Fold this protein.
Amino acid sequence: MLGLYIRVLGLLKPNAALAWTLALANIALAAAQFAEPVLFGKVVDTLTRGDGRPDASRLATLLLLWLGFALFTILCGTLVALYADKLAHRRRQSVLAEYFEHVLTLPLSYHGATHSGRLLKVMLQGTDSLWGLWIGFFRDHLAGFVSFFVLLPLSLVMNWRLSLLLIALCAVFAGLTTFVMRKTEHLQSLVEDRYSELAERASDTLGNVALVHSFARIDAEVRGLRTVIDKLLAAQIPVLSWWAVVSVLTRASTTLTILAIIALGAWLNGQGLATIGEIVTFMSFATLLIDRLQGTVNFVNRVFMEAPRLREFFAVLDTVPAIRDKRGARALSHVRGRVEFRDVTFHYDDRRPAVEHLNFIAEPGEVVALVGPTGAGKSTALALLYRAFDPQHGAITVDGTDIRDVRIASLRGQIGVVFQEGLLFNRSIADNLRVGKPDATLDEMRQAATRAQALDFIERAPDGFEARVGERGRQLSGGERQRLSIARAILKNPPILILDEATSALDATTETLLMAALDEVMKGRTTFVIAHRLATVRRASRILVFEQGRIVETGTFDQLVNRGGTFAELARAQFLTPVLGTN
Ligand code: ADP
């Protein structure tokens, strides 16, 4: 827990100078506050001493001192609080941005296994916790610690008998807090798990709202969410009850301590062992200390409640991307587009290889079609090319350079990917196109859109290029989404292109438009296409036939059909029949 707290404070490092200044100022402030009770006691003693005629000049000096201290603490206190707030807010946003960047660099395999809803929740709540702890650190925690180290020894010096009561009170607080922390630690981390589950589930359902509606699943989904909420509450309620017990017990012991100080003080005063002023000072000390103790319990409670959340946050931050730039990796540029797979084998986890002993060469400008049943390893093979994963054996080269020796960003800069399900941001069409080329002019975008057969539908909308496409482009049809992502690839103009053809059947017009768009985008690039259409396979200069992770045949369409092997069979089943049927 302490390690976690230190790490939280460590995140203030980029503003270390300001943070240290604030911390020291806080300690000074906390120390200055002890002056008040001491002065109070002295005032009382001055008033009660003598024979009814207090020493006026001494009294005036004391009151002036008191006023000075009070004004000083108020002014400094406000300044420190203001700067602490600003610092905490600023750091929170920077840490959030760092987390966001880190999460984006994590490989697809990580994102495949971790829901975006969970990552978002961890980001928002984690930075919220950090912010709360920083604010608390500057406002209360430091002052609390100072109190213990100054107040207790000071009170011991002033009157050790009364002081014992305060020490006993501290012991009670510490004991209770530790006990309850131990009792509820496990439950609290369960609560956090449930919160993550809740975020994941809610965002998953919202992301699939069309499915929810079409299967009339609103009730079922709400019920599912309620189940998670019930589990969350089942873990949360006992934790709350335990801390309520702490609250009752600590408050009760506070009242008892105050009463005991008065009783013991009166008795000591009778014995001549304590002055009235000392008793008054002690009462103030006790109030201050109790205030701090309660603050500390709240702080411990807070760290404790937030700990699982922070652990989750740090766990994501500590995930090291499996695929990183090698030390000294250079940029890949001026690519001609010769791609070679040399005995490439890759498996996800410990399972049977998804692809095995892949060997092939694609010459610059060639169109290579990958065909085969689903699950045969076609997408995996191409994901290896842009390093979504690295193969366990073998090597992939671009223009003779092993792709592990070049910077990932520069490799991906040379490869365009058109996904089966045209992936789009919830931004304007122009913004989505500029993903391919950030500085593209409207003219360039229009040209690309024309070549991708997308200009017509873009200009049909009243906002044209400024029209928003909705979350994941849901305001467009499947064919439109695809043509937009083809236009995006044309703008990027990469020497190597990966195309995952849509499997869904399109109407004849859209199909024609799409084929024309594809012809445009493939021109002059080494293209790998996961082919589902006869027309595409026919256009390919080479066909790789995949079966269970291996390439079982290669050749041109005619060669393979004449061979009468796997491809010929596949072509009959997969390509020829449906296409002939629709003709
Ligand atoms: P294809 O593109 O030919 O349909 P894939 O490359 O998608 O085939 O899949 C090859 C094999 O790898 C399949 O058995 C599939 O279940 C498995 N696979 C694909 N993606 C993943 C993944 N992200 N994690 C684990 N296994 C996967």
Summary: The pocket of adenosine-5'-diphosphate is lined by residues 112, 348, 354, 372, 374-380, 546 (CB under 6 Å). The longest strand covers residues 339-346.
